[in-house]
Amino acid sequence: MASFRRWIARRTGYIHIVRELLRQNKRWFVWSALAGLALRSFFVWRFPAVVDDSRLYANIAENWLTHGVYGVTDSGTVVPTLSRLPGYPAFLAAIFSVFGMGHFRPALFVQVLFDLASCFLGADLARRLISRSASKATFLLAALCPFLANYAATALTETLEVFFTVLTLDLAVGALELGGLHAPRSRSILGSLTSPPPGWASNREMWAWLGCGLAAAGAILLRPDGGILLGAVGLYLIASFAVRYQAARGTATRFRPLVMLAILCAGTLLPLVPWTLRNYRTFHRFQPLAPRYANDSGEPVNPGFNSWVKTWIADYVSVEEIYWNVPGDTLPLQRLPNRAFDSPDQRKRTEALIADYNEDHDLTPELDARFADLAAERIQAAPLRYYVWLPVLRVTDMWLRPRTELFAADPRWWEFDDEWPWLSLSLGFGLLNLSIVVLAKIGTWKTRAVPGVGLLLTFIVCRSLFLGTLENPEPRYTLECYPAVLILAAATLVKRRAERSR
User: Which of 84, 122, 227, 298 is least crowded, fewest Cβ atoms below 10 Å from its Cβ?
Assistant: First the structure.
């Protein structure tokens, strides 16, 4: 056992630092962890959330365990599916095999443990990038964050996705350290990458990048947008290659980032091969991820309606009141905002189109084509609105909206006609979320010269740009960025920037 610990210490090079940090601040971390556990346990017992997607994941897991088929039940028959990636169904299948089919509460408590592990990983990432004081502040903020705790009590992919996201970022920063990361007094986020150590890549650095790729693969196997992690880290490495190529001209080390990028991609993409082969053999199509609209093979996706929605939707309220209603439910015309019409004539045509849909609540190909024509007209009339202003509004709404979508609170909180307990919750969550975002912006400026912070910002920007392309701006889609946001917020709360821990 002792020799094994020494081998781990040699391979990682930082375990003793983490252990020393925990030993010196044992009371802080113990009480913070207990507070985080209590908060998450409260949500599990008082506000457990099992939604439609949760039941779909559970159905896939049960069929996988019972029939050996990765599929859904359709009219009593198990049909293979590719609408959901296998990560979360595999997690539920492991829980159901121990605690029985359909038992969600044990799964939620396991998610609580994953969420607390994410707090420790975020604290380690803050220690690497900023200081030990920032590490303590990050752990406390993450442990007491109600937005993370709320989704730990929800049978969805978010908690596990957050875990693999922060694990990927932590391993990436660790790999950059092993590759020669240091802290110059420069405002360039790539300044630390211009002075590579002599020699070729070490074994520890290559293992770190391989582990980073495997962690990113875990995120992708939960949700297809986990691929943004690979894109963000890859962009950072490509930028470092451009800097190193000039700084290390004539030496072999200038190609180090490209070698590490190849290892990262291999670790990320190889775990997706079995899923891709299964889809090709079962459905005869190349599908390495889940489809864009989480639809099965042959299931309609209503591209015309989706395009029309993207010409006016800007907030989560419209997702609940309109987008989720189609098909199958009434489309309330009175809930459409004024920006959905460019002229009185267009309003009349839209009203007629919606009236035709509301007759039987079925979005036929003919109706979808009419929505597509209307969308094309609106895009041609105002391309900047479609490609720039509305995506900006959607991303802003996802970042700043009170994160109460899992509660019975009225999403139209600004109308102040909700019950006072829920209205107070909306206002409180909204102010808390706004405070964290503002602190993170200040922390971004404060740590602008800290190497590695650029990686966090690259991920946040890449994910936000992707979210702007969606027609359903749900606040939960920004939750994967919250560990990075909390680290930046913690940097603001630390009185002075201490020397980075090595």
Answer: 298
Q: Is the pLDDT of residue 160 over 80?
A: yes
Decide: 29 and 135 in contact? Cβ < 8 Å. no
Q: What is the mean pLDDT of the chain?
A: 87
Mean pLDDT score, 401-426 = 92
C-alpha span between 444 and 84 (Å, rounded): 35
474 CB contacts (<8 Å, ≥6 apart)? 316, 319, 398, 405
CA dihedral 18, 23, 26, 28 (to 10 degrees): -50
- 401-to-345, 367, 461, 468 alpha-carbon distances in Å: 33, 33, 18, 15
CA distance 175 to 181: 9
CA 40 – CA 249 distance, rounded (Å): 52
For the segment 439-466, what is each residue's pLDDT rounded down to a tens digit?
Answer: 999 999 998 888 889 999 999 999 999 9
Phi, psi (degrees; rounded to nearest 5) at 78: -85, 120
For residue 291, count other CB atoms closer than 10 A to its CB. 16
Residue 381: count of CB within 10 angstroms of its CB: 13
pLDDT, position 195? 40
Provide the whole-model pTM: 0.90
Whether residue 485 is predicted with pLDDT greater than 70 in this model: the reply is yes
Tell the burial category of 114 from Cβ atoms under 10 Å away from its Cβ (0-12, 13-18, 19+).
middle
CA 487-490-493 angle, to 5 degrees, is 165
Tell me: the pLDDT tens digits for 14-60? 555 566 666 777 788 889 999 999 999 999 999 999 999 999 999 99
Are 289 and 220 contacting, i.e. CB atoms less than 8 angstroms apart?
yes
Instruction: Give yes or no for a cis peptide into 344 (omega within 30° of 0).
Output: no
**Which string of DSSP letters, residue by residue, matches 174-212?**
HHHHHTT----S-S-TTGGGSSPPSSS--HHHHHHHHHH
The alpha carbons of the chain give a radius of gyration, in whole angstroms, of 24
pLDDT at 19: 64
